[in-house]
Each structure stands twice: as C-alpha cells, then as structure tokens.
C-alpha cells in the first residue's frame, strides 16, 4: 500500500539521492499518466548493472531528480494525484521500451509479465470446475520449497485438489535446510521473489536466509498452501498404472509407517541442491572430533576458540568462513579450486533508506525497479561465456569477451590481495570465468583469508586422521571439520523409485545422466512433471524463481488441456525429447562451463552438463508459454 507523502522537500531530495533513477521515471510516468516524464533525452543508454543509473550523465541524473522532486512535491501539495487502481496496460510497452531500449522489443511481453500492472497475470486462466467439474483429478507435489509451494498455489487457483509431501517439518526447502552463518542469496531480493508477490520492503539488496524463509513461510500461510502439506513425510516410490493412467505414491509417514496416495499427476519439486555431498577422503571415519556438512549446520556446537578445518571454497564456504573466522581459534581452509569473485560492494548492505522511502511512496516503483533489474538479467552474462570456436586458449578463457572479463576479474583479485602475493597466487582461478558459479564479493572473503588465525591450504588433501587433515605438506590439527563440499546435484529425484509406463524405471533410464524435455517431462513417464529438473539451472543470468514460474505455467497449461479435452495423460514423445536434448547439449558445449575441464557440479559423472540451461531467460519463457500437444502422446 502506497503511503501518503508528508515529507518536506529536503527530505524528499535526500531520498532521491538513493534512487535508482530510470525505473523511478517509469514509475512516476505510470502513476501520473504523464508521458512528459519520459522525455527522449532521458532514455537510459544501457541496462548494464555495472554502469550506474542506466548510463545517465551527472547532469541527466540531476534533471531526473529535479523532475521527481517536482512531481512528488505536487502530489504532496495536492496539485497532482497519483492514479488509483492498476496502471494502464497499453502504456506498458512504451514505458518498457523507454527503459530497456529499442532492442527490448522482443523481450517486452516477458518484461511486462514480470512487472504487470495487473496483480498476477500469470495466474491460471482456467478453473477445474468449469472444465471438468465431476472428474477426479488429484495432484501430488513432492517438496515444499520455493517451487513446490508455487505449484500448490497455482493448482489451488485453478481449483485442482493437491497434496504436497514434504520430508522436513516446515516449508522453505534449501532456505530451511541451509542455516549456516552468513547464508544469503546472491540474486537481488527484488528478483529472487515471486513476480506476483514482490515485497516492497526488502531489508537488504540480497536477502539473508532468515528473511527468505520468513517470505516462503508467510506465502504458505497466506495462500492456504500450508494446509495441504504433509510434513515429515517422505516419498519412497511413485508408480504409474497403465490401466488407469494414475500414479500411486508410496510415502513414509512421520510415525515410520507407509501410506499410499493416489494422483492423476505428480510434480516433483525436490530441487537440485537438496542432498549434501560428502567427499570420499581416506580416513574420514577416523576423525575424533565433530564434523558436519554446511547444509546440516550444528548450531549447538560453539566454534569459539576451536581449531576448525573447512573443506571447500564454493558458494557456501565463501559465506560462512568470514563469519566463523571472527571467533574460531584457528581456521584452516582447504581449497581445491579457486572461485572467481564478482565485485558487489553492496552485497551485505541494507536497502538504502531513501530507496525504501520511495518504494513506500511511489506507486509501482518497486515493480519498475524489478523490471529494471530483470532487463539486465534477461541475457545477463551469457555473451561473455559463449565459446568462440576460433579461440585457442580454452582453459584460460573461451573468447575475446570472456578474456576481457578474465582481465577485469583478475585486476579485482590483484587489488584485493595487493599486500599478500602468496594469497593472490592461490586466488587467481586457472579456468575461464563462467565455468563455475562466480561468487559475489564485497571484500569480506579476502579480509578473512588475511586474518592471523586463518590459513589457506591449496595442497591436495591426502587423508583425514583422528586429529585433523593431512596434506603432502604436513598435518593440520583440527577440533572440528566442516564439509562445505556442495550437493549431489546430478542425482535428480534420488532416492525415490519412480516407475513409469510398462514398468520403466526412471533411474535405470537415466543411468546417472538425467534428461528431460524442457527440464520437465520424460518419455515413458506420463503426467510426471519435474521442477528445477535437468538443464534448468542458470549460471550467469536471472533468478531460479523465474524458472519455477515458467514451469508452473507450463504444467498448469498441460493439466488444463487434459481436463478441457477429456484426456487422461500426456507422455513426452521420445523423438521430441531427444532432439531437444541434442540442442541443449550442443549449446552447453559452446558455453564456458561446457568446454572447461574444471571440477563443477554442473557436470555429471559422464561429463555431460545435466544441470544448466544454456540460453537466455527469454528462450525458456517462450518455450513454456503454450505447450505443443503434438510434443506428447495423448493417453
Ligand atoms: P560447491 O559450489 O559445489 O562447492 C563445493 C566445494 O567443495 C568446492 O570448493 C569443491 O572443490 C570442494 N570439494 C568438494 N569435494 C572436495 C574434495 N574431495 N576435496 C577438496 N575439496 C572438495 O557447493 P556449495 O558451495 O554448497 O554451492 C553449491 C551451489 O549452491 C552454488 O553453486 C549455488 O548455486 C548454490 N548456493 C548459492 C548460494 C548463494 O546464493 N549465495 C550460497 C550457497 C550455495 P572444487 O571446486 O574443486 O570441486
């Protein structure tokens, strides 16, 4: 709810110093209906987040602030009023084009969907009681994380009965399980949120774990989804019955018993990063002290004064090491592969007071702000990770733009470690930017590594002993070992047994190499839909919540078509699935993560990239708008 403006000019002026100016103009123009607030000479020249304020010159910034002050002052003084109700959708394309440039033409439908003036344009446009009121159609969703909650909400909106089965005692998935100190998302808060439920008042530019968990909990409560969740219940097996075209889902109940649920469709929303991966290191069982995985943090264990060993320097370690380094007696970090660091000075910053004030007082500003962030991530860093086949330096960089990125990021590391050549040598990755997840950095990692009580070890671990970790250069005694060794991302849908048509076994079919059509459907497994399935992870562009929204839209469209046409099930055609996967594989081979030989969770044991989506967000959005029923056998 927008608050009335009561503040004096000088307070508004101060707030405007914190404003992101291009989307503010868009919001003011939308709220007042005055196109004069979008003059040609104030069109931003870029949406690149590395170029502040859309490339405005200082004089242009002053002009925008003056325009905004005049408008907000006029509203405060009653000389102008903001329009009531939703903004005019017909104005959206012009305003969107003003912000995102003429090239945005193709992206406009997607961008408008993301910042729609209506409350929830992506809500299903059908209801079961209209399409097939008497038909029994129940859906089982596996998992109550961000994706499963969304799927439940959408089914509820369509009037389709559903049950969510969740192994944990609460919602939130990864945001429930990962509670290590310093845990936060590395995608902007205004993007890492449902498009129809943005949060005007995010406390930080990048939300912390507790804030996100609270967001998902409140979503589950507010939408009524929580009431449909069976907590503490784990899916053991799901089996498709060829005769009835229905699924039998066997679950373990909280009391240890088993129960059968029946469903006409199953949606797996178990995610890719839900099963901690422990390394195989000789002697792991010999260690005398406590040890735990970062996703199973032992909060009861006080690390103050302890000798702590951390294995791994991925996204998780990167966040908790600076936190625990402050109190640990000593901290030894075992790094196998250095991460690239993306400079993000405001990574830990609270949202500036002035910006929060504007979100509260300018109708639609937070939406246009989201649009602005979104426009910069539609393609994101993809152009810089595309492989140039003529480029001959594959393990350093994959193209001229990638090499430029490398030079910039190396310069950043040189700046961070200027006073510590020993750490600098260890910090410069020997693989191309984009081959692994780049980590957002505001300097706290380097500061932690430079502490007197912290040691970075790059010698390979040879074994774990009863009193610590040994490498070729010696023994490192430890009281506690923390495994920050990531997740078994390639083990999609493990350890469930999933049996499809004619007794087909999903894991046998995959044989460690999971594939699906659009990441969602698999031949021989009718009416089984996967969310955050194979090849739907993004490395350098966008937010994974965007993918979940595309997936729920597509799944709901499929289910709507079944109910409308009186069919029982959709089964992906083998040839459609194969051609799609060939296209995905070919594209992934032309990305930095596909050609580099560096370790990463983006490749499965066979070396195939089974996780990543190699294209723009727009391409996934387009492919998931309207299911082509010809892609499916209709049962
Ligand atoms: P990860 O990126 O897979 O990192 C695992 C770390 O453990 C790597 O440094 C890896 O080294 C090391 N490792 C594994 N086995 C080892 C062994 N035997 N010996 C020595 N080192 C070993 O896992 P993660 O940090 O948990 O992150 C996983 C993903 O979760 C991220 O990429 C991101 O998508 C997501 N995540 C996001 C955030 C965020 O939003 N900020 C935070 C946490 C996680 P190698 O690199 O050599 O394999």
Automatic annotation (TrEMBL):
Keywords: FAD, Flavoprotein, Monooxygenase, Oxidoreductase. Its EC number is 1.14.13.-. SUPFAM superfamilies: FAD/NAD(P)-binding domain. Gene3D superfamilies: FAD/NAD(P)-binding domain. InterPro entries: FAD-bind_Monooxygenase_sf, FAD/NAD-bd_sf, Flavin_mOase-like. GO terms for molecular function: monooxygenase activity. It holds the Pfam family FMO-like. Belongs to the FAD-binding monooxygenase family. This is Flavin-containing monooxygenase. It comes from Nonomuraea insulae.
